[in-house]
């Protein structure tokens, strides 16, 4: 199964001024495609911190997705960080300068030229009708922080990440988590490959715990679900989805 | 200035089934108290991963806040991870078993007793009217993942984190970010201690970039704001807050 790490870059997230919408989006999309997100790191706009994180995740996972820190201002340091992660020089891409000048109908100023300064050897992937391409360095996909742009860019390349997705079943239980913990433990003894989640909820009228069962093998999942339902008192199950 | 790291623990976040509401809350609250959150790590329910992250953040920052993975089921591994981080044994706290039995009006079963199994030497802090205390191990504050409970526990101890908060001013600008980047750079040359954020927005009618200026020194902040406004064409400023 393919694995991924997500790096959210930006002081505005850490200081609570902006809520990160990008990591929930990427986690949902990647999960649906069959990619396992193993870590999210949210870090400041700092070249050395970015470089260390990118390098560590690039070594550890199949894919790395970064969000934020691309743009023309002083706090946009992601390209420098990615370059440093792989000891690459920064190079101004004339093809991007030309796109910028075409899109804006004027000669690029120094700030716009900064946006065309990328790690040497980066692959540029055209993303739908956006004038700025997606930048890919090795297994690192560099996305902008603006959620609308990130989503459009991700959608343009999502099929390259498609693997074998998980099948999911949900069981809503009326008992306390502490009253079913022993049964869950026994279920995992019988189905050690099952991915089983148990999430207590406060304030729901119909149930107190949401159980999630996941497997890539639909038959295995069904057998585990049947076994779980046999272990619980029928009256304790509010709903199965 | 006090620093903090936040660790969000739970497969349900990484698999996109649940959106993490706790790190935005903690970032906002800690910022308002004057604490600098330097990193958020979102990691799976895995004892070794939890132990490594807790140890690294405990060494790096003044305070560490964890969320999730406390409870009676198989995937609640945070207490084991925190214990492993500091080479502490796990010990059943009789005082918590008693609280559990009082709250539930029955003898605790094995799953409930698991909830009373904590790293030896943990400090237990009563949290408002919640029957389960807040668990503190060294500089690590162990919170539940359920947002309502996390908030009530945090509110009960928030004053112990109060330092000298930042003052914030916001400037909404009608120009493109690339048209003001040079002025922002010059502003930081004049005010190197200023924390300056620049956030382009799509789809706002009144402005295209939100600038945030922050400092602990109100006079310094006002001088930086005056300097910024003198650098921008007055017609380009939509609003100052």
Explained architecture:
The structure is a homodimer of 241-residue chains. Chain A has two domains: 3-161, 3-Layer(aba) Sandwich (Molybdenum Cofactor Biosythetic Enzyme, Chain A); 167-240, Alpha-Beta Plaits (2-Layer Sandwich), CATH 3.30.70. Helices cover 39% and strands 25% of the residues of chain A. Chain A has nine helices and twelve strands. Chain A has a six-stranded mixed beta sheet with strand order 2-1-3-8-7-6, sandwiched between helices. Chain A has a four-stranded antiparallel beta sheet with strand order 10-11-9-12, with helices on one face. In chain A, helix 8 (177-190) crosses helix 9 (218-231). The two termini of chain A are 25 Å apart. In chain A, 43% of the residues are buried. The interface between A and B is large, with 62 and 62 residues.
């Amino acid at each position: 199964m393919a694995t991924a790490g997500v790096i959210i870059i930006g002081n505005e997230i850490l200081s609570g001024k902006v809520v990160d919408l990008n990591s929930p989006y990427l986690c949902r999309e990647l999960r649906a495609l069959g990619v396992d997100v193993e870590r999210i790191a949210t870090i400041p706009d700092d070249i050395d911190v970015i470089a260390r994180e990118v390098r560590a995740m690039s070594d550890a996972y199949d894919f790395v997705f970064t969000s934020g820190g691309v743009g023309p201002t002083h706090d946009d340091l992601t390209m420098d960080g990615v370059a440093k992660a792989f000891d690459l020089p920064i190079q101004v891409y004339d093809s991007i300068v030309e796109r910028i000048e075409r899109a804006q109908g004027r000669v690029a100023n120094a700030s716009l030229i900064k946006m065309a300064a990328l790690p040497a050897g980066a692959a540029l992937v055209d993303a739908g009708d956006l004038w700025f391409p997606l930048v890919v360095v090795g297994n690192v996909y560099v996305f902008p922080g603006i959620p609308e742009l990130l989503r459009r860019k991700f959608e343009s390349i999502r099929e390259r990440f498609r693997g074998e997705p998980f099948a999911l079943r949900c069981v809503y239980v009326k008992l306390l988590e502490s009253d079913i913990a022993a049964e869950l433990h026994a279920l995992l003894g019988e189905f050690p490959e099952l991915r089983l989640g148990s999430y207590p909820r406060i304030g729901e009228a119909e149930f107190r715990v949401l159980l999630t069962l996941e497997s890539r093998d639909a038959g295995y999942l069904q057998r585990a679900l049947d076994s779980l339902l046999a272990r619980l008192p029928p009256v304790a199950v509010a709903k199965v989805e």
